[in-house]
Amino acid sequence: MGIRRFGAVTAAMAMVVLLAPTPAPAQQAVTLRVAITQQVDSLNPFLSIFQAGTEVGRLMYDYLTAYDVKDQHPVEGLASRWESSEDRLTWTFHIPEGKKWSDGQPITAKDAAFTYDLMMRDEVAATANGSFTATFESVTAADDRTLVIKTKQPQATMLALDVPIVPEHVWSKVTDIGEYRNDQVPVVGSGPFILTEYRANEFIRFKANKDYWRGAPKYDELTFSYYKTSDAAVQALAKGEVDLVNRMGPAQFDSLKDEEGVTRNKANGRRFNELVINSGAATRTGEPIGDGHPALKDVVVRRAIAKSIDLDAIIDRVNGGYAQRGTGPIPPVFGDYHLTPDPAHPYDPAAANADLDRAGYARGADGIRVSPEGRRMELRLLGHASRAYDEQTGEFVKRSLADLGIVVDVQIVSDNQLNESSTAGTFDLVFSG
C-alpha cells in the first residue's frame, strides 16, 4: 500500500504487570492467566496480522529460524542449520529428525515447502506474510530433512522469515484458506502450547505441549482473557482474576504502584506507536484502492502535518513520560540498528502553515484550507478502541491540525474494523505500530 509513516513514538516502558503467584498444591496444574485488550483477528496464521493474533500464533507454530533473546541474531527454529550459495540466491535449510507436530507426526522439510508454496500460489494465503515469499523463485523439499529455497534476487530476510510453518497433513485438506478459522481443537501445531478452547472476544485456552522440542513449558495451562478496556483488565488484576496485564496506559501503571501482591515491570519496550498517512493506497501491482484524501499525495502536506505535531508534548501528556521520541521504525532498545538523525525532526507549526500557504492550500472564510483542486482539507483519523492512547492522542492531533486549517474527524473503532479500513485504503490517517 502507498502509505507514509511519521512521528513514531517509541514505547520506553513495557508496562507489564505481574501478580505475585500463589504456590500451587502438589500435583495441581500450574496456570498462567493473561489479560488482553486487543482482539484476536484470526487464529489462521495466513490471515492474522494483529499483535494479539500473531503472538498467539507464535505459541502454536514455530518458524524456520528463531531469534536470540539477547541480540536477535538467528538461532535454531525448525531448522537447526543452514547455508547459502555464494550469490545468495539459493538457501538450504536442514530440519533434523526428532521434532514433531503436537499429534505425533514428524516435522519435515515438506511441511515448510508446502507452507511457502501455498503462499506463493494462493493470494489469500499471502495475506499476512506474503512479502517474505514475493521474490521466491522456487521452494522444494529435496528430502524430508532438506529444504531448498531459490530467490529471484538476494533477500535480506532469509534468516528472519516470520512465517508460521503449518503441518501439510492438516492444511492440505483445507479447501478455502480465507474461510478456514483454524479453531477446531485441539489444533495441531509445533509450538510450546496447544490450543484447547477458543471463544472469540472472550478467552483462549492452551495446554502445554509436553513434547515440545525445546522442552516442556513451565506452565501446564495458559489462558488469555479478553477485556474491552485496559481499565477493566487492571481491575481484574487487582481482584486476582488474572496474573499478568500488558498494553496499559501510564495512569493505570501508576495506579498499581502500591497495590498489594502486584509487581510492576518498567523496562525498555520493543514496539512503537505511529501515525500512518494514506499517501495513495494501492495493491501490490500498483492499482489504486481506497478513498484517501488526494491532497495527502503531496509531500508538502505530509511534511506540514509532521511539523505541526509536538511529539514531546504527546510523550509528556499522553504517555506520562513513559516513552521516547521515535526517529524511525526501529526502537532504541535495538542499539545496533536504531537511527538517531541529526537534527531531530522539527516541531514547527509556523513553518508548516507557511509551507501550506506557499503550496496553494488557501484558507476559506471559515479558516479551513482548500486544496488547489478545490477540495476542503477534511481528514479521517482512525484509532483502536482497545487503546486509550489512540483516543487521547487523536484529540491532540485534531487540535494540532486545526491550527493548520485542517479538520480531523477522530473515529475510534474496533480492531477488526480498523484493520479492514486500513487494508482497503479507506482512511486518511490511522494509528498503527
TrEMBL record:
Cleaved signal peptide residues: 1-26
Main location: other
SUPFAM superfamilies: Periplasmic binding protein-like II
Superkingdom of the organism of origin: Bacteria
Location relative to the cell: Cell envelope
Xref: Gene3D superfamilies: Dipeptide-binding Protein, Domain 3, Periplasmic binding protein-like II
Entry keywords, A to Z: Signal, Transport
Span of domain Solute-binding protein family: 74-433
Family: Belongs to the bacterial solute-binding protein 5 family.
Annotated protein name in UniProt: ABC transporter substrate-binding protein
Species per Swiss-Prot/TrEMBL record: Saccharothrix hoggarensis
